[in-house]
Amino acid sequence: MSAANPPPLAAPEPAVARPPGVREHRCACPASMALAQAQCIAGQLQTAIAQRGRATLAVSGGRSPIALFEQLRQQDVDWARVHLTLVDERCVPEQHPDSNALLVRKHLLQGVAAQARFTAWLDPPPWPLGLNEQAEELADPADPTAAALRAAPALAERASQRLRALGDVLDVLLLGMGDDGHTASWFPDSPGLHEALHGTQPVVHTLPRTAEHPRLTLTRAWVLAARQRHLALAGAVKLAVYQRALAAPSPALPVSFVLERAAGPIDIWMAP
Ligand SMILES: O=C1O[C@H](COP(=O)(O)O)[C@@H](O)[C@H](O)[C@H]1O
């Protein structure tokens, strides 16, 4: 290639108009993102406690929030007044390594933060009549997915009751996103997605095509009702998916339904 004939320059990324509620926080690395996000959330929890005497916090699972949880648990928060719950859960027993409740217990409910109350979604007892048998089936290694699917509607109803007992509106809610564009357990073009996006009950069940385990998840109505919403994204793949999701709401990228104009304010935490 001669100097007279230079290679074509890479086209710049087209500028994407941010919906008005999207507030981006660009951080230097995942560790600094975890700290900045933890400090912001701690402030929001303390504000809720000052205003209403307690704070509710719903957290996502997966691998990404571990660093955040480990920063958050060290923050100066009146943890005894914090009521913690989940954004979504995998239909597995709580001892299973994929359990989001297990993740929360191991990485967030430690030290002073262990004073927080935790409403998990799948832990017994007391199970309502009929669910004991279904809970046992969940642990059946012969066919755990089939057993979880049979149990899922009743488990979603039970989790919904638990959510309602926390109040109509969550104070702070933390979302993650998978590389496939799912958030919470709203999976692309999959069974249960319609109910997750349009249902009015707090929790429904879904069946991912791009990940393991039947799921329980908060519905969009409950996610969008939360007073403060955060979405954390680290790594080139997730950042690229996020850019695509900003374009328009689409069931192919369910995270887009928390980014669209109608969804209201959300803090986006971004790191390379
Ligand atoms: O399955 C899930 O995935 C997403 C993203 O997880 P990550 O491992 O990529 O961080 C998570 O937000 C969700 O809570 C979880 O159940």
From TrEMBL:
GO terms for molecular function: 6-phosphogluconolactonase activity; isomerase activity. It is an enzyme of class 3 (hydrolase). Gene3D superfamilies: 3.40.50.1360. Residues 1-11 have a biased composition (Pro residues). It catalyses: 6-phospho-D-glucono-1,5-lactone + H2O = 6-phospho-D-gluconate + H(+). SUPFAM superfamilies: NagB/RpiA/CoA transferase-like. Pathway: Carbohydrate degradation; pentose phosphate pathway; D-ribulose 5-phosphate from D-glucose 6-phosphate (oxidative stage): step 2/3. Residues 31-260 form the Glucosamine/galactosamine-6-phosphate isomerase domain. Keywords: Hydrolase, Isomerase. Its EC number is 3.1.1.31. GO terms for biological process: carbohydrate metabolic process; pentose-phosphate shunt. Residues 1-21 are annotated as: Disordered. Hydrolysis of 6-phosphogluconolactone to 6-phosphogluconate. Belongs to the glucosamine/galactosamine-6-phosphate isomerase family. 6-phosphogluconolactonase subfamily. This is 6-phosphogluconolactonase. It comes from Serpentinimonas raichei. The gene is pgl.
